[in-house]
Amino acid sequence: MKFPALSLRTKLILSFLIVIIIGGLLSLSFGSRLVKDTIIHEAQVKVKHDLSAAWMVFNEKLSDIKEVVSLTAAREGLHETIKNNDKDSILRNLNRVREENGLDILNLTDKNGIVVIRTREPDVRGDDQSRDEIVREALKNGEIAYPQIVPREELLKEGKDLADQAYMEFIDTPKAAPRPENKETSGMMLKAAATIRDENGTTLGILYGGILLNRNYYIVDRVKEIVYKGEKYKGRDKGTATIFQHDLRISTNVPNEKGERAIGTRVSREVNQAVLIEGQPWIDRAFVVNHWYITAYEPIKNINDEIIGILYVGMLERPYIDTTSRVMLTFTLMAFLFIVFLLVILYFATSRITNPLQKMVVATQEIAKGDLSHKVEVKSKDEIGYLADSFNQMTADLKTANQKLIEWGKTLEKKVEERTKELREMQEHLIQSEKLASLGKLAAGIAHEINNPLGGILIYSHLLLEDTSKKSPHYENLKKIVKETSRCKDIVRGLLEFARPKEPEMTLININDAVDRSLAIVEGQTIFQNITLDKTYSSDLPKIVADESQLQQVFMNIIINAAEAMDGKGKLSLRTSMNTDRTHIEIKISDTGHGIKEEDKKRLFEPFFSTKEVGKGTGLGLAISYSIIQKHQGTIEVESQEGKGSAFTIKLPVTRKSKDGQ
User: Deepest of 44, 368, 421, 463, by most Cβ within 10 A of its Cβ?
Assistant: First the structure.
């Protein structure tokens, strides 16, 4: 079967549609999982906090029982009646305390643990409670409170109604682990005991009391009230709490199918294994009676650290599943509307692509007929527009091919001439560089040769000046000869230092001392009399390996330049510090002088460049300083603002050893 040919517009729309649908399905798939995992994770975090609140209620009730028993045991009236052996008064007072505080039991033993008063069953007494873990611990440490499993025979001593309250037959529960028993006769009790001592510290007996948790719904209902505030979802309580005796629900507000409390049902096999056998908390979804819940379980332990039950809180999973479904349904509808909207946009967008291409098809047909002057009228600035421009340019190029060949010949000849000129200029530049290098060597040689004669001229002119009277007409001329000869001597010395700089003699030096010595040499000069000095030296600078005399030459040169830039009036600041990564020492010398012009900054370190008046400088000072700092593997940086001053920052590397190993 042969499919009909599809237009370019149809192909483009179908291609985009396939990409959008695949991307949408992938986004919905990953988004659904992400939303579900996020919502369920948040629910698990909440139920974990809810379990902490449940423990707070549980432990608060246990503390209340302990407080009642402890305060009662500490009453002086009780001590007196015990000493007087007034059993009727003891029974009456303890029975009142038990009823007022809602205790199921409140009994008194002698100092050996033999029951002397049983408030619920006054006629049943004389039994030994010293083997009871809580009573025994109270005999040792004064007072104690713990959950405890109480066997049926002990409950019967307190009354058949209490034993019947604890009795439960198992109800078949889906997913529960099998057990050989089908009923529970013992009960779980929150129990506290306290030693009764007189004012001399003599033990008079033990008072113990407690509340039976079987079919007692105070704690679980209190948890639901505090944590879940009675919230419902589709007629069902959203949050629930349960106390398990081993794996049996003995106190719960989880409803069964009839809407009653699911007393007698049991925990699931997975929770049984994790919490009761392995002793680990369980925070996950679990099947509770007949519904799925997001749950949190933790073991309840007795005084011997044995697991005797489980404390549970849980929230219906259905609200979170429904929330996830609603979110994803919303996303799906939005994605569908988005696809429809994109298809409409694609229909009009593809028209802007296909219409220019159709014009180009017509143009190619015209050109194929020999009409090279035909142009494609496309004004778009995209790739199709560029293609149309290229197409039009191609036809224009075909018409002017011979003209271009001639022009290229002329252009090639011109380029050859330009390249020949460039090579000639490069050759001249190379010759000039060689001349300058030779001139530098010649200048250094001449400087060396004229240095001695200049020295002689300077010495003899000084002698003549000293022997000539100041009133002589030759005195001023001799003075000028001495001055200009000294200047020539300085230029020669600077030229020699620049042409053949002395290798530094490296030793360990203190940079603060070097800066101070440099300043001490020059600050006595007249130009420094009206200059304010501001010295800030860092005290934790390490010693560095350097030639102190050469660095002093650099510091003195910059300090004198700064003083001259201020015309002998202003503020000179000297600062030393470490850089942030402690690899270099920085010496900053700043002034408040006239500053340096922007065009002069680039030439500051060139030989013979000077901004001073003629006769006041050789132009070699900063060039020599720059050469010295380079030999020390350092740098000099200049910051200046015309009219506000300049700052020279010298950076020297920190090293550990000098050449002599110091």
Answer: 44
Compute, in degrees rounded to 10, the torsion defined by CA atoms 477, 483, 489, 490: -160
The CATH architecture to which 31-316 belongs is: 2-Layer Sandwich (3.30)
**Per residue in 181-207, pLDDT tens?**
899 999 999 999 999 988 888 889 999
Report the candidate in 317, 359, 379 with the shortest Cα–Cα distance to residue 40. 317
Question: Is 415-500 a domain of CATH 1.10.287.130?
Answer: yes
Please enumerate in sequence order all residues whose Cβ is within 8 A of that of 67, keeping only pairs 6 or more positions apart, or say none.
Answer: none
pLDDT in tens, 57-69: 999 999 999 999 9
What six digits make up the tokens of 510? 């203190």
Dist. CA 58–CA 639, nearest whole Å: 74
Contact 506, 545 (CB under 8 A): yes
CA distances from 320 to 43, 166, 257, 586 (A): 8, 36, 22, 65
Tell me whether the CATH fold assigned to 31-316 matches the one assigned to 502-653. no
183 forms beta bridges with 169
The number of beta carbons lying within 10 Å of the beta carbon of residue 79 is: 18
Q: What is the pLDDT of residues 354-384, one digit of tens each?
A: 667 677 767 777 666 666 666 666 666 666 6
Residue from 433, 565, 444 nearest 494 by CA: 444
Correct CATH for 502-653 of 3.30.465.10, 2.60.40.10, 3.40.50.1980, 3.30.565.10: 3.30.565.10
More confident residue, 311 or 15: 311
What pLDDT sits at residue 432? 37
Task: Using only the alpha carbons of the chain, give its radius of gyration.
Answer: 52
Using CA atoms, how far apart are residues 592 and 659, in angstroms rounded to an integer? Answer: 39
Contacts of residue 361, Cβ cutoff 8 Å, sequence gap at least 6: none
Look at residue 243 and tell me whether its pLDDT is greater than 90.
yes
Averaged over 245-262, what is the pLDDT?
89
The rounded distance, in Å, linking the Cα atoms of 373 and 369 is 11
pLDDT over 90 (residue 214): yes
Q: Please name the amino acid found at residue 45.
A: V
Structure tokens at 303: 């005084």
Helix 8-73 to helix 87-100 angle, to the nearest 10 degrees? 160
Cα separation, 187 vs 158, in Å, equals 12
Is residue 436 very low, low, confident or very high in pLDDT (cuts 50, 70, 90)? very low
Identity of the amino acid at 528: F
- Would you say 311 and 301 are in contact if contact means Cβ atoms under 8 Å apart? no
Predicted confidence band at 47 (pLDDT cuts at 50, 70, 90)? confident
H/E run at residue 419: helix 401-467
Torsion angle defined by CA atoms of residues 559, 563, 565 and 567, in that order, rounded to the nearest 10 degrees: -170
What pLDDT was estimated at residue 134? 93
- Give me the long-range contacts of 400-409 (CB less than 8 A, separation at least 24): none
DSSP 391-409: HHHHHHHHHTHHHHHHHHH
Residue spans per domain, the chain? 31-316, 324-399, 415-500, 502-653
Burial of 416 (0-12, 13-18, 19+ CB in 10 A): exposed
